[in-house]
Amino acid sequence: MGKFFRTIFLVDLFQGLWVTFRNQNPKYIYTEQYPAERPEVAERYRGAPRLNINPDNGETLCIACNLCALACPETLIVVGSERNEQTRRKELTTFTYDLSRCMFCGLCEDACPVDALELTQDFELASYTRDGAIWDRQMLEEGPKPTQYKC
Amino acid sequence: MADEPKPEGGAAEPGKPAAETPKAAPPKPAAAAAGGHTPPKPPAPMASTPWEGEIPGQLKERFGDQIRECAAYLGQNFLAAKPDAVIPILEFLKLEADFDYLVDITAVDYPKRAERFDLIYILYSFARNERLRLKTMIADGAQPPTAVNVHVGANWLEREVFDMFGIQFAGHPDMRRILMPEEWEGFPLRKEMSIIQQDDRWVKENLGIESGQ
Amino acid sequence: MPDATFLDTTELVLNMGPQHPSTHGVLRVILKLDGEKVMGTECVIGYLHRGVEKIGENRTYQQFAPYVDRMDYVAAVSNGLGYCLAVEKLLNIEAPARAQVTRIILTELNRIASHLLWLGTHALDIGAITPVFYCFREREEVLKIFENYCGARLTTHAFRIGGLQYELYDGFEEQVKAFCDMFLPKVDEYEELLTNNRIWVARLKGVGILSGDECKEFGVTGPVLRAAGVKWDLRRAQPYSGYEQYDFEIPTGENGDTYDRYMVRMQEMRQSVRIIRQAVDKIPTGPIGKTPKVIKPATGEVYVSIEAPKGELGYFVVSDNSTQPYRVRVRPPSFVNLQALDRMVRGGLVADVVAIIGTLDIVLGEVDR
User: Fold this and answer.
1) Nearest CA of chain A to the CA of B159: how many Å?
2) Domains of chain A (ranges, CATH numbers)
3) Cβ–Cβ contacts within 10 Å for residue A2, how many?
4) Same structural domain for residues B142 and B198?
5) Same-domain status, B145 and B125
6) Would the N or C end of chain A have less CB density within 10 A of its end CB?
7) Vertex C353, ends C347 and C354: CA angle to 5°?
8) Count of Cβ atoms closer than 10 Å to residue C214 Cβ
9) Chain B positions in Cβ-Cβ contact with residue C94 (cut-off 8 Å)
10) In chain A, which residues have their Cβ closer than 8 Å to the Cβ of C169?
11) Which residues in chain A have Cβ-Cβ distances shorter than 8 Å to C59?
12) Inter-chain contact A70–B33, Cβ cutoff 8 Å?
């Protein structure tokens, strides 16, 4: 009998409509209006790589130990270094990071003993050419400069 | 994993490029700068302990010297059998010991061994809540009988083993490639198939440049 | 085969996929039809084959961990857990208690995320457009927890062999608890939309029946097996990572049809919340485990499996005492479950094929690897 009335009065239909109606409330808006609204990215976000610079003297923190290149599953990091004859130390010359093959697993930053290589919160990595995805040392130190749109 | 390094093992594959052997002769094909160098001495065999109990007893009684080994490694039971006995053992385990769920069929390639492939059946029993691995060694080109008549689910699993290792299962209803394209040459999970080599070839053919890997 | 309800026609072969929105990826099903009736099917898979097992042989144990996330990308955390457990078993080590509890919380959150994605897309296939938006909204909350915890949303690489890489962030417990409180009423809301909906019931009841024995025959596991009335869950049958300490039920169905599978998954989401609530309250203090710098297990082989959202996910790892696995075999639940598709759709209608593919909850990344 109950089932009969539920069928006659379309109870299940109105029940469903009531759910959708409840969710119409503007305070439940969930969509982010990117790029007008910047998304909040987590602190630990693994995005664009960055080669950190010592803020005191402007020199790179990288000691050219090559551990990141060894840790990388895709072997996309190439570290170039040469020995400084005066200090008898290895110094970083070039650093290439192929973002097109990167899967942002974070193994390189885990491997870095001096926190020089870091995956940052930058996530706008698109470029017009394939070569644009291969970052050299300068790009890694300065960070990406995505186009800013006015909205 | 009875270790029987027979010298003629590598020569069992005449069609394969000999130039690749220095790269692939140790278990690892060139891993670039990934830091994995193989130890110079051959690795010690698996330190397994004998597995005693009801099932090994029954099996030994029934199949005799067809069962080569009943052992356990890290608490996981496995038994090694001769290839001809595999299907009867699977049948016996299913009908009389409740191992009614065929979890997986897979293979491992040991190119230096005369009987090149380890064929592995992983079984589970709902009633006993136990796992069991059944292993057998087969030579390249041998055609082990299919398990489809015992476990229907073996169909795709055997097709995948064929696709990846080139092991033909005799009596299988539909022995075709399943994951790779039909026109693919070679069997990708064999050890002589290095990924660098395949990648190089593809890049050269399709892009006309050196891949630089 | 004369049938009163069908006209007698010649057999028609229809290609469904690989670019069909209801095949959940690049699955191609060749349907042999007699009018509307499915006489047989053939699945063509492999479009997404990336050779994960081959890659595994060419990477070190640590390096392979990010790749397993890319098989079942909807439940990446479960994949990572299975792989870490397998290598830990091979090394004969165990993660510390704090790491284990954290792993359980994240894996159960991932189960919820996976089931939510399944529910949304499955309902969309059947024609109910509303749930997909609600499901993705709630799933977003789970992904935010992942993002806060490890910095990635989908392919998380959250766990490492031997424990965890990341310490829990401040406010983790609060965020997880808030999610649980928010989520349970939402499940009721989905049920209000679907469970008694007449179209939903008519499309799902009695469709794609797979009995318990048939499931065992094909090796089908997960919610599909439980919907057929077999009370089997690896978290209970062979507990790993400390699941034996938690109180939860294994929901089962009776008929093994598509509707039962829907009900089982809805219940599983509730049970996951129950596990998460228990786990969050007892996260122990202590170390989170340290990844060994060089992983070089003794020669041997292990098979370790976990209860992934789709079923039994197993890893068979062979070591030859070097830093790279000699062989990694993944036993993917989706691949094995998909094999039962033919049995389930035979004799049904074309429209049911969509419902059955949806209810199997396959991810083609895992089917093809």
Assistant:
1) 30
2) 49-142 (3.30.70.3270)
3) 7
4) no
5) yes
6) N
7) 160
8) 17
9) none
10) 43-44
11) 73
12) yes
Please give the share of chain A, as a percent, with pLDDT higher than 90. Answer: 0
Q: pLDDT, tens digit, for every residue of B61-110?
A: 777 777 888 888 888 888 888 888 888 888 888 888 888 888 999 999 88
Residue B129, class by beta-carbon neighbours within 10 Å (0-12 exposed, 13-18 middle, 19+ buried)?
Answer: exposed
**Helix or strand holding residue C335 (H, E):** helix C333-338
- How close is the nearest chain C Cα to the Cα of A74, in Å? 9
Same domain, B72 and B142: yes
- For Cα atoms C266, C268, C272, give the angle at the middle one, nearest 5 degrees: 125
How many Cα neighbours within 13 Å face the side chain of C153?
11
SS3 C340: coil
CATH class for the domain made up of C50-207+276-368: mainly alpha
Place of tokens 């170390």: C287
> What is the complex's ipTM, to 2 decimals?
0.84
| Residue with the two structure tokens 């990288």 | A62
**Inter-chain CB proximity C329 and B180 less than 8 Å:** no
Q: Which of C57, C61, C368 to mutate to test the interface with B (most CBs of B within 10 A)?
A: C57
Picking from A70, A79, A108 by the largest number of B CB atoms within 10 A of its own CB, the best residue to mutate is A70
Spatial distance between the Cα atoms of B178 and B159, rounded to a whole number of angstroms: 6
| C84 within 8 A of C99, measured Cβ to Cβ | no
pLDDT tens digit string along A10-30?
Answer: 787 888 888 888 888 888 888
Q: Is the pLDDT of residue B38 over 70?
A: no
C261 in Cβ contact with C220 (< 8 Å): no
Angle at which helices C76-91 and C97-126 pack, to 10 degrees? 140
In this structure, chain A runs to a length of 151
Residue B80, domain member (yes or no): yes
